[in-house]
Write a structure and sequence with these properties.
The chain is an alpha+beta fold and 128 residues long. It has helices at residues 22-49, 53-65; strands spanning 2-4, 10-13, 68-71, 84-91, 100-105, 107-110, 113-116, 119-125. The protein contains 2 helices and 8 strands, in the order E-E-H-H-E-E-E-E-E-E. It has a 3-stranded antiparallel beta sheet. Strands 4-8-5 form a 3-stranded mixed beta sheet, with no helix packed on it. The chain is elongated, with a radius of gyration of 24 Å. It starts with a strand and ends with a strand.
């Protein structure tokens, strides 16, 4: 079906008159999603090896723009489902027991999907 301008000239085919098969569209989407995941993994690899704070900041900004957030849970309650314990710091304060003291390795989440859990140091109550 051709579309016509007000002056009667042909504007070309309608968007619904494409020759792309629905299975090809699925294949293209799957390929695009796989490519996105590969690029995210490559960025995380580069982040782990970056020596410049500016490069790290720029990579994290770029990832955040597509929904990949850096996770630094300092001050949050330790959650073994979302955090990996890398060490403990003794504390006398019972309110700090089980709280993340410091992020050792930044974690990342793609929207709600955890890509890499942050490795953290957790406050632990001193034994008497």
């Amino acid at each position: 079906m051709a579309w016509f301008r007000k002056d009667g000239t042909d504007r070309g085919s309608a968007a619904s008159d494409t020759d792309v098969h629905p299975l090809q569209q699925v294949s293209d989407l799957e390929r695009a999603l796989a490519d996105r995941q590969a690029l995210i993994q490559m960025c995380l690899y580069a982040l782990d090896r970056a020596r410049s704070g500016g490069v790290v900041e720029r990579l994290e900004e770029g990832l955040a723009a597509i929904g990949v957030q850096a996770l630094r849970p300092d001050g949050e309650r330790f959650d073994p489902a979302r955090h990996e314990a890398g060490g403990a710091v003794p504390t006398d304060d019972p309110a700090l027991d089980g709280v993340v003291a410091e992020t050792e390795v930044t974690g990342f989440a793609d929207h709600d999907r955890l890509l890499r859990a942050p490795i953290v140091t957790v406050y632990a109550k001193k034994n008497p």
